[in-house]
Prior knowledge:
The protein is mostly beta strands. It has one helix and 13 strands, in the order E-E-E-E-E-E-E-E-E-E-H-E-E-E. It has a single domain, classed as Hexapeptide repeat proteins (UDP N-Acetylglucosamine Acyltransferase, domain 1, 3 Solenoid).
Amino acid sequence: MPPFHMAVLSPSACVSALGLWVEGCVLMDGVEVGDGAVVRRATIDKQVIIHAGSSIGVDQVARAIRYTVSPNGILVIGSATSSSSAARVASVESSMTR
């Protein structure tokens, strides 16, 4: 199966091709997804950086605690709101169910 499944990517989204998985997502302008990252059922706003190896939207408990989640279960990560911050950085979800 290809690394992109039911995903919409902005033409300026920068996505690594090394072992990543993007499923059910919308990635806006300037989004960067690093090597080996997994992003599921998420809308990622402009200029957000998802570091290599990150898991976003995988752990259901962590996603509800750390992010805004729509009633339909779509995780939302907004862009940086401060002019002094170049981008909001999405970090690895810790597994709270292990």
